[in-house]
C-alpha cells in the first residue's frame, strides 16, 4: 500500500514538476531596480525612469573594487500612458526581468505631481506584489530623472543614498503606506519629502591637474505639500522643522537663540526629544486647536563670553528657545494654513478623535474649516545638558 | 492537461480498486466509483475548456435577500 | 467504528484552532474593518461571543449522544429520511466550504508568493498533502497539526511584536465611531468563521476524554478570538482603518512592513511558509470531515477508499471559481447566511430543539 | 482502545517462512545427523563427528586414557582458536589423565563408575553439561566449548572452555564524548553483557539469549530490566526476533532491518549505541536492548526521534549547558535538512527574502557563474557527499589528504574559476558541518531528504519546500517504533516527558520515566532531591 502511495505521489510530482518552473528567475536574469522616478513627458504621457543596480560592482573582495572604476547603477527611461505600460516599454530595452522587490525610493517629478497628481502612480506600487509598502516616496524639485541620474560619493548609488537620508530622518519621511493612508483619510492631507540635486563638496584628485569638479549629490529640500493628490507647494527646510515639531513627528533640529546678555552673539541648542499634543476644541461654529509642544535640548555652542552655566541664565535661554520654536512653528503653520489651506498636520484626525459626531458633518469640507481654525501654540522648552564645558574657554579672564 | 487528468484518474483507480476488490468491499467500491464519477464530471469538462456553472453562484442567489443586509 | 485513533484534549484544541484561524487571520481584518472601521476589534469580541455560543451548542448537542457523530445523531433525532437529508447537506457543505478555503488559500499564495504559477498547481499540491494526512487517519492529522501549529502561532506573535515599532495607538481612536449596527455587521463574517467549529461534532467521539469537549471548544474559540483581536489591532494600528479596509490580505502587508534595524525585515516569505502549515491543516480537517461523513452516511466500513476521489471533487470544485473578486464577494455576502445561518447555528439549533422535544439523547446539556 | 502494538499478519508470514526454510534446507548437505544421538562406542561417535566436521581443520581431537586406566578411553574435541587452551590442558586433560588418581587414592576406578567419577571429581572446569544429542555436541564444539566423549557411554560432557582472542575494550569510535565513560562494547557478546551487568548490578537485569541465523547460529541477547520494562514490549521484541529465519546475522544491522516497524521509511526506528553507559540508561528508561555477538553495536527499542539528537554526554554535563547545546543540535538538524533548499528558493524564486545589500552581493558573485543555482548547489552537494564517503572509505592517513585536497578544490579553485559562487560554497559547507552535529544514523535520513527538498524547491520555490517539509512531517507523525509514536513526547505531547527533549531538566527534577515507554513503573526517584545549602533545606 505504502509503496503504491509513494509511487503515486512521485508520479504526480514528476508530472507537475515537468510542467515547468513557473516563477523561477535566476539572480543573473534580474534587473534589480533600486530607485524609480516618474515624470511627465511633453505630450502628457508618463516618463518612467529606473535606476538599476549593476551587480558586478557590488562584489566584495579584491577583484570587485567596483566603485570608481565602473558605475554601480544604470539609469534608463521610457514613456507610456500608464506606469505598467512604460515598464513594458522599458522591458524592451532591458535584457532582464525588471525586479521591483528591492526598490528603495519612488521619486515623483515636480511637473507630474503638480499636474497629474500621485494617484496615477502610486496605485501600481501598492497593487503589485514586488514593490513594498515601505518604499520611500519623494518629490523632486525639477525632474525625477535628473535626480536619479546623480550618483553618490559615500553610497554605491544615489537611490541608496536617498534611502539612507530618509532613514536618518532629516526631513519629513513618508513611506508609501503612509502616503496611502494620508491620501484616503479626510483628516489629513499628504505631504512628502522634497528632494533636489545639489552640488555637494568635491572629491579631490579625480582629474589630474585642474580643480576637482563639483559633485552632484542628492539632498533633502524640505517638504512637498499636497492637496488631495496634487502638489500645491513647498515648505523649505527651515519651515519643515516647524512643521515637524507641530506634528510631533521628529523632534530634532538646532535652535539658534541670542545670548541673554549679548544679543548680537548667538547660542546654539540642539533639540534631543520632545512631544506634541494637539487639543482640539469646538464651539459649534469653528474649531480651535491648542498645540502643546514640549521639547528638551542640550546647549551645544555659545558665541557669547558670559557664563551661561547658572540656573538663571539657563532659564532665560529656555524662554528664548521656546519663543524661537514657537516662531518657526507659526511660520510653517501660517504658510500652510494661509497660503495652501490644507491640513497636512492631521488636525482633522485629532478633531475626529475628540468630536466624532461633529466630524461627520465637518469632514466633507475640512480644509475650509481648517483654514479658518484658530491655532494656539504653547511651547515648553527645557535645557538638560550643556555638554562638557561650563564656560567658554579661550578668553582671558578679566 | 486532459492527459494528465486521465493519468491521475488511472492512478487513483489503480491505487484503490485492487485492494477493495480483494477485500470484497463492494459497498466501498460503489461509493468510490460514485465520487470518482462526480469528480470526472466536474473536472474533465473544465480540462476541455468548458465552463461549468459555479454552485457558489446558486447559493449566492439563494441567500441574496439576507446577503443584501450585509452590503 | 470508522476511525480507530484517539486524540487527546490538547490535540483537539489545536485542531480546532487550525480549523478557524489560518484563513480567518488572512482576510478577517480587511472584511471587518470595512464594516466597523477602527472599531473592528469590538466586532471581533462580539464574534468571539457568538463563537462561544455555537461551541456550547455543538458540544452540548454532541454530549447528549456520546460516541456518535453529527450525522449519526441527526438521524436519531429527526428520523431516518430527514436525518439523511441533513447529512447530505453537511457533506455538501464540507466539500463546498473546503473548496472555498482551498480557493482562498491558493489565491493568496498565488498573488503573494508565486504569481506566475497557475492556481491549479497549488490546488493539486495542497490537496495531495492534505490527502496523505487524511489517509493516515485522524491521529496523524492531529499530530501533524500539533507539530506545526505552535510554530504558526509563535511566529505570528513574534511578527506582531516586531511590528510594534510602526504602530500608533491613536489610529484606533475614536472608539465607537461607528454605530452598533456597523459593529454587528462587522462581526457576522468572523462569527461565521468561528462557527466552523461545528465540525467538532464529528470529532467528539474520537476524543479520549469526551467529557472535556466543552472546555476544548471554548479554549480553542478563545485562543482564536485572541489572535484575531491582536491581529486586527495590529493591522489598524499600522495602516489606519482606511488603508486596512482596502488591502485584500492586510496581515500579509503588516508582515511586509516589519523592519527592525534595517536587518530584520522582509519576513513575509518566511511567514507565508510557516503559515502554509496552518493552511494544510485546515484543508485537511475539512477534507477529513467530508471523507468521514460520506463514509458514515453510506454506512461504509472504511473511509479511506473515498479519500482520493473526494480530493478530485475538491480540486474540481475549487477550480470552478473564476477569480478572487468572485470569491471575496461570495465570502463577504453569501457565506455568512449560508454557513452561519444554516450549518453552524441553524441546523444544530433545530437538532437540539427537536431532541429536547422528543426527549432523545442521554442527558441534558 | 489505544493501539499499543501494531498487529502483524502472522498467518501469511509464517507460511512463507516455512516454504523458504524447507526449500533452502534441501539444498544444504545431509542434515540427518541433527536428530541423532550418541552410541556407546567411542570410535563410532568419533567417526560420526569427524564425518560431520569433515574438512574443518580447526577442530581438534585429543584421545587419551583416564587416570592410567587403559580400559577407559576418553576423547576431547574442541575448536582451536575458540577455546582457552591453557584451561583445557590444566583443568581437563591434566586433571583427568593424572590428578584424579592422586586426588582419590585407593578408590578403584572402574569403567562403570567412571562417568560419575569424572563429573564429580575429574573435571576442574566451572560449567559442565551432559548431553547425548549430536546436534548439541556439534553446536558446543563450534561455539568454543570442549566436548568430552567416553568409551562405553552414550553421553558427552560439554565443558565451558570458551576463550578466544578478542579485541580489548577501547574508546568508542562512533560516539566520542568529552565527559563520561570511555569504554565501548566489543565484538564478544559475553563481554558486552558483562559491561551491562557491571553498570546495573541488579537481579532485575535480565539477559535472555537466542540463537539466530540458520548457518551462523549467532547468539543474540535480549536485555531488559524487569519491573521497569513493559512486559508486552519484551514479548513483542521476542516474537519479532523469533520470526527471523535467515542464513546469517553478521551485524546488528541485520536484526534492525528485520524487526523495524517501517521498513520503507528513511528514518531509523531502532536506535543503536556502542556505549555501555548509554545502553544502560536506555534500559533504565524501560527500553529493551538487543545485543548481537560479533558487533559492538547494541540495538535499543523503542526508539524516539529525539534520541538521535541527544548524546550520552547530555546527562553528564550540567543541564543549562546541555540545553544550549541541544538547541544548537536541533537547529543544525533543521539546517542540514533545509538550508540548501532554502538558498535555492531564496535566490531563484524569492529574492525579496534577502536584504538589499546581501542580494546585490550574491547577485554580483553570481554574475559570472554559468549554471542555474540549483545545478550549482546540487553539484556542490554531490561533491561534498562524495568527499565524505571517500574520507570514510580510505585508509585513515589518506582520508585526511582527500579531505584537504577536496576542501581546497571546492573552496578555492572552483570559486576562483567562477564555476560556483562563494555564497554557495558557504551554504554547502555549513550544511555539511551541521549534519555532523547529531547521530549518524539520523543524519543519513536528513541528507537523503535534503536532496528531495532541493528538487522541490528548485521547481516550486518556498511552496515546494514547505510541501516537502509537510510531507516529511506527516510521514514522521505516522511512524511508530514498537508501539510508541516516533515523535513523542513532543507529538503527541506528554507533558511530563517534555523535560527531556530540547530542554534537559536537571536530574533532580526528572522524577519520572518516559511515560509511553516505561508504562508500568513511572516513578524514577524521590521528589525532593534538589540540592540546597543546609539552612534553606525544607525540614522534616
From TrEMBL, chain A:
Residue ranges annotated for the Spore germination GerAC-like C-terminal domain, each copy included: 222-387
Main location (coarse class): membrane
Keywords: Germination, Lipoprotein, Membrane, Palmitate, Signal
InterPro entries: GerAC_N, Spore_GerAC-like, Spore_GerAC-like_C, Spore_GerAC_C_sf
Membrane-topology descriptor: Lipid-anchor
Limits of the Spore germination protein N-terminal domain: 24-196
Lineage: superkingdom: Bacteria
Gene Ontology CC: one annotated term: membrane
Localization of this protein: Membrane
Example GO biological process: spore germination
Protein family (similarity comment): Belongs to the GerABKC lipoprotein family.
UniProt protein name: Spore germination protein KC
Protein species of origin: Desulfofundulus australicus DSM 11792
From TrEMBL, chain B:
TM regions (residue ranges): 29-48
Highest taxon above the source species: Bacteria
Alphabetical UniProt keywords: Membrane, Transmembrane, Transmembrane helix
Name by which UniProt lists this protein: Uncharacterized protein
Species of provenance: Desulfofundulus australicus DSM 11792
TrEMBL record, chain C:
Domain of life: Bacteria
Entry's Gene Ontology cellular component terms: membrane
Pfam families xrefs: Spore_permease
Family: Belongs to the amino acid-polyamine-organocation (APC) superfamily. Spore germination protein (SGP) (TC 2.A.3.9) family.
Keyword line: Germination, Membrane, Transmembrane, Transmembrane helix, Transport
Species of origin: Desulfofundulus australicus DSM 11792
NCBIfam families the UniProt entry points to: 2A0309
Main localization (coarse): membrane
Entry protein name: Spore germination protein KB
Parts of the chain that traverse the membrane: 12-32, 44-65, 115-135, 147-164, 184-204, 216-239, 272-294, 306-325, 337-355
Membrane topology: Multi-pass membrane protein
One of the GO biological process terms: spore germination
Subcellular location: Membrane
Automatic annotation (TrEMBL), chain D:
Superkingdom per UniProt: Bacteria
Pfam families hit by this protein: GerA
Sorted UniProt keywords: Membrane, Transmembrane, Transmembrane helix
Protein name as annotated: Spore germination protein KA
UniProt feature, compositional bias: Basic residues: 1-11
Skewed-composition ranges (Polar residues): 14-30
Transmembrane segments: 327-349, 421-441, 453-476
Entry similarity comment: Belongs to the GerABKA family.
Region (Disordered): 1-33
BP GO terms, sorted: spore germination
A GO cellular component annotation in the UniProt record: membrane
Amino acid at each position: 500500500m505504502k509503496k503504491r502511495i509513494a509511487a503515486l505521489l512521485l508520479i504526480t510530482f514528476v508530472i507537475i514538476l515537468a510542467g515547468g518552473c513557473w516563477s523561477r528567475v535566476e539572480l543573473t536574469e534580474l534587473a534589480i531596480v533600486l530607485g524609480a522616478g516618474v515624470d511627465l513627458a511633453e505630450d502628457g504621457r508618463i516618463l518612467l525612469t529606473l535606476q538599476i543596480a549593476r551587480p558586478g560592482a557590488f562584489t566584495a573582495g579584491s577583484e570587485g573594487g567596483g566603485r570608481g572604476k565602473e558605475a554601480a547603477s544604470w539609469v534608463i527611461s521610457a514613456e507610456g500612458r500608464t506606469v505598467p505600460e512604460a515598464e513594458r516599454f522599458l522591458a524592451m530595452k532591458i535584457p532582464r526581468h525588471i525586479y521591483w522587490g528591492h526598490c528603495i525610493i519612488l521619486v515623483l517629478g515636480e511637473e507630474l505631481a503638480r499636474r497629474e497628481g500621485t494617484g496615477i502612480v502610486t496605485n501600481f506600487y501598492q497593487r503589485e506584489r514586488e514593490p513594498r509598502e515601505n518604499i520611500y516616496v519623494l518629490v523632486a524639485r525639477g525632474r525625477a530623472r535628473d535626480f536619479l541620474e546623480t550618483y553618490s560619493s559615500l553610497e554605491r548609488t544615489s537611490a541608496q543614498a536617498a534611502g539612507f537620508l530618509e532613514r536618518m530622518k532629516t526631513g519629513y519621511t513618508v513611506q508609501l503606506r503612509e502616503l496611502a493612508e494620508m491620501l484616503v483619510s479626510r483628516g489629513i492631507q499628504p505631504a512628502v519629502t522634497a528632494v533636489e540635486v545639489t552640488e555637494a563638496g568635491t572629491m579631490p584628485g579625480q582629474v589630474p591637474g585642474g580643480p576637482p569638479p563639483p559633485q552632484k549629490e542628492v539632498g533633502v529640500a524640505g517638504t512637498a505639500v499636497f492637496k488631495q493628490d496634487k502638489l500645491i507647494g513647498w515648505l523649505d527646510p527651515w519651515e519643515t522643522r516647524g512643521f515637524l515639531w507641530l506634528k510631533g513627528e521628529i523632534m530634532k533640529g538646532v535652535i539658534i537663540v541670542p545670548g541673554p546678555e549679548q544679543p548680537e552673539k548667538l547660542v546654539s541648542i540642539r533639540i534631543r526629544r520632545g512631544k506634541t499634543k494637539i487639543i482640539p476644541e469646538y464651539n459649534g461654529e469653528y474649531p480651535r486647536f491648542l498645540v502643546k509642544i514640549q521639547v528638551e535640548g542640550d546647549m551645544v555652542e555659545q558665541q557669547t563670553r558670559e557664563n551661561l552655566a547658572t540656573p538663571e541664565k539657563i532659564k532665560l535661554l529656555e524662554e528664548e528657545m521656546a519663543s524661537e520654536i514657537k516662531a518657526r512653528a507659526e511660520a510653517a503653520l501660517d504658510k500652510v494654513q494661509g497660503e495652501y489651506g490644507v491640513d497636512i498636520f492631521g488636525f482633522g484626525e485629532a478633531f475626529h478623535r475628540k468630536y466624532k459626531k461633529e466630524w461627520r458633518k465637518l469632514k466633507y469640507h475640512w480644509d475650509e474649516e481648517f483654514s479658518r481654525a484658530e491655532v494656539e501654540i504653547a511651547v515648553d522648552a527645557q535645557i538638560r545638558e550643556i555638554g562638557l564645558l561650563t564656560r567658554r574657554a579661550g578668553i582671558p579672564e578679566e | 492537461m486532459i492527459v494528465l487528468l486521465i493519468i491521475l484518474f488511472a492512478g487513483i483507480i489503480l491505487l484503490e480498486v485492487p485492494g477493495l476488490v480483494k477485500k470484497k468491499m463492494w459497498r466501498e467500491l460503489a461509493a468510490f466509483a460514485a465520487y470518482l464519477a462526480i469528480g470526472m464530471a466536474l473536472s474533465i469538462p473544465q480540462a476541455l475548456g468548458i465552463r461549468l456553472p459555479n454552485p457558489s453562484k446558486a447559493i449566492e442567489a439563494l441567500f441574496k435577500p439576507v446577503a443584501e443586509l450585509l452590503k | 467504528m470508522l476511525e480507530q485513533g484517539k486524540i487527546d484534549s490538547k490535540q483537539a484544541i489545536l485542531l480546532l484552532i487550525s480549523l478557524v484561524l489560518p484563513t480567518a487571520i488572512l482576510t478577517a481584518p480587511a472584511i471587518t474593518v470595512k464594516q466597523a472601521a477602527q472599531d473592528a476589534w469590538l466586532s471581533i469580541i462580539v464574534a468571539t461571543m457568538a463563537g462561544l455560543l455555537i461551541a456550547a451548542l455543538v458540544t452540548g448537542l454532541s454530549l447528549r449522544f456520546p460516541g456518535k457523530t453529527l450525522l449519526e445523531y441527526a438521524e436519531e433525532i429527526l428520523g431516518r429520511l430527514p436525518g439523511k437529508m441533513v447529512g447530505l447537506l453537511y457533506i455538501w457543505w464540507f466539500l463546498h466550504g473546503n473548496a472555498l478555503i482551498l480557493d482562498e488559500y491558493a489565491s493568496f499564495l498565488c498573488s503573494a508568493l508565486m504569481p506566475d504559477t497557475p492556481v491549479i498547481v497549488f490546488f493539486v499540491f495542497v490537496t495531495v498533502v492534505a490527502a496523505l494526512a487524511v489517509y493516515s487517519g485522524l491521529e496523524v492529522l492531529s499530530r501533524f497539526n500539533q507539530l506545526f501549529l505552535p510554530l504558526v502561532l509563535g511566529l505570528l506573535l513574534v511578527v506582531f511584536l516586531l511590528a510594534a515599532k510602526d504602530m500608533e495607538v491613536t489610529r484606533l481612536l475614536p472608539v465607537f465611531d461607528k454605530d452598533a449596527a456597523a459593529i454587528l455587521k462587522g462581526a457576522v463574517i468572523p462569527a461565521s468563521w468561528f462557527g466552523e467549529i461545528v465540525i467538532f461534532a464529528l470529532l467528539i467521539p474520537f476524543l479520549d476524554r469526551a467529557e472535556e469537549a466543552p472546555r476544548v471548544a471554548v479554549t480553542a474559540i478563545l485562543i482564536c478570538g485572541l489572535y484575531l483581536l491582536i491581529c486586527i489591532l495590529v493591522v489598524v494600528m499600522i495602516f489606519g482603518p482606511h488603508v486596512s479596509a482596502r488591502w485584500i490580505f492586510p496581515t500579509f502587508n503588516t508582515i511586509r512592513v516589519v523592519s527592525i534595524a534595517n536587518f530584520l525585515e522582509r519576513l513575509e516569505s518566511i511567514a507565508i511558509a510557516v503559515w502554509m502549515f496552518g493552511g494544510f491543516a485546515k484543508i485537511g480537517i475539512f477534507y477529513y470531515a467530508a471523507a468521514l461523513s460520506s463514509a458514515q452516511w453510506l454506512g461504509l466500513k472504511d473511509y479511506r477508499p473515498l479519500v482520493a476521489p473526494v480530493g478530485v471533487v475538491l480540486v474540481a470544485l475549487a477550480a470552478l471559481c473564476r477569480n478572487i473578486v468572485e470569491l471575496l464577494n461570495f465570502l463577504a455576502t453569501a457565506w455568512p447566511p449560508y454557513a452561519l445561518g444554516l450549518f453552524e447555528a441553524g441546523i444544530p439549533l433545530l437538532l437540539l430543539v427537536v431532541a429536547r422535544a422528543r426527549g432523545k439523547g442521554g442527558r441534558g446539556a | 482502545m489505544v493501539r499499543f502494538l501494531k498487529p502483524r499478519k502472522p498467518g501469511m508470514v509464517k507460511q512463507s517462512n516455512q516454504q523458504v526454510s524447507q526449500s533452502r534446507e534441501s539444498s544444504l548437505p545431509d542434515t540427518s545427523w541433527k536428530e541423532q544421538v550418541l552410541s556407546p562406542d567411542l570410535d563410532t561417535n568419533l567417526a560420526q563427528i569427524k564425518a560431520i566436521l569433515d574438512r574443518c581443520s580447526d577442530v581438534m581431537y585429543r584421545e587419551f586414557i583416564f587416570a592410567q586406566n587403559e580400559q577407559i578411553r576418553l576423547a576431547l574435541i574442541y575448536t582451536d582458536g575458540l577455546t582457552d587452551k591453557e584451561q583445557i590442558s590444566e583443568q581437563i586433560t591434566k586433571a583427568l589423565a593424572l590428578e584424579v588418581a592422586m586426588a582419590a587414592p585407593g578408590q578403584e576406578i572402574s569403567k562403570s563408575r567412571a562417568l560419575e567419577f569424572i563429573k564429580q571429581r575429574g573435571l576442574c572446569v566451572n560449567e559442565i553439561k551432559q548431553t547425548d544429542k549430536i546436534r548439541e555436541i556439534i553446536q558446543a564444539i563450534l561455539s568454543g566449548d570442549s566436548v568430552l566423549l567416553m568409551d562405553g557411554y552414550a553421553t558427552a560432557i560439554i565443558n565451558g572452555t570458551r576463550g578466544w582472542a578478542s579485541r580489548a575494550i577501547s574508546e568508542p569510535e562512533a560516539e566520542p564524548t568529552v565527559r563520561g565513560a570511555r569504554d565501548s562494547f566489543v565484538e564478544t557478546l559475553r563481554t558486552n553483557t558483562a559491561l551491562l551487568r557491571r553498570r546495573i548490578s541488579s537481579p532485575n537485569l535480565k539477559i535472555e539469549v537466542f540463537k539466530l541465523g540458520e548457518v551462523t547460529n549467532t547468539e543474540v541477547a535480549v536485555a531488559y530490566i524487569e519491573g521497569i520494562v513493559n512486559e508486552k514490549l519484551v514479548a513483542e521484541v521476542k516474537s519479532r526476533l523469533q520470526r527471523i529465519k535467515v542464513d546469517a546475522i553478521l551485524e546488528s544491522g541485520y536484526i534492525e532491518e528485520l524487526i523495524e516497524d517501517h521498513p520503507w521509511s528513511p528514518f531509523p526506528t531502532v536506535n543503536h549505541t556502542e556505549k555501555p553507559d548509554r545502553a544502560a540508561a536506555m534500559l533504565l528508561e524501560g527500553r529493551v536492548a538487543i545485543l548481537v555477538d560479533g558487533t559492538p553495536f547494541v540495538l535499543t527499542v523503542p526508539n524516539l526521534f529525539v534520541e538521535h539528537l541527544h548524546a550520552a554526554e547530555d546527562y553528564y554535563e550540567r543541564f543549562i549547558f546541555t540545553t544550549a547545546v541541544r538547541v544548537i543540535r536541533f537547529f543544525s538538524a533543521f539546517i542540514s535538512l533545509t538550508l540548501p533548499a532554502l538558498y535555492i528558493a531564496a535566490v531563484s524564486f524569492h529574492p525579496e527574502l534577502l536584504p538589499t545589500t546581501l542580494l546585490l552581493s550574491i547577485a554580483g558573485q553570481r554574475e559570472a557563474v554559468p549554471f542555474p543555482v540549483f545545478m550549482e548547489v546540487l553539484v556542490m552537494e554531490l561533491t561534498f557527499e562524495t568527499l565524505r564517503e571517500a574520507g570514510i572509505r580510505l585508509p585513515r592517513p589518506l582520508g585526511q589528504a582527500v579531505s584537504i585536497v577536496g576542501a581546497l578544490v571546492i573552496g578555492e579553485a572552483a570559486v576562483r574559476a567562477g564555476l560556483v559562487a562563494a555564497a554557495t560554497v558557504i551554504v554547502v559547507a555549513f550544511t555539511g558541518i551541521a549534519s555532523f552535529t547529531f547521530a549518524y544514523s539520523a543524519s543519513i535520513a536528513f541528507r537523503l531528504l535534503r536532496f528531495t527538498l532541493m528538487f522541490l524547491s528548485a521547481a516550486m520555490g518556498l511552496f515546494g519546500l514547505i510541501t516537502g517539509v509537510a510531507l516529511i512531517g506527516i510521514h514522521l507523525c505516522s511512524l511508530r517504533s514498537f508501539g510508541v509514536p516516533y515523535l513523542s513526547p513532543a507529538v503527541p505531547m506528554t507533558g511530563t516527558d517534555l523535560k527531556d527533549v530540547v530542554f534537559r531538566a536537571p536530574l533532580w527534577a526528572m522524577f519520572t520515566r518516559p511515560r509511553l515507554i516505561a508504562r508500568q513503573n513511572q516513578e524514577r526517584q524521590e521528589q525532593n532531591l534538589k540540592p540546597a545549602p543546609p539552612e534553606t533545606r525544607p525540614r522534616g
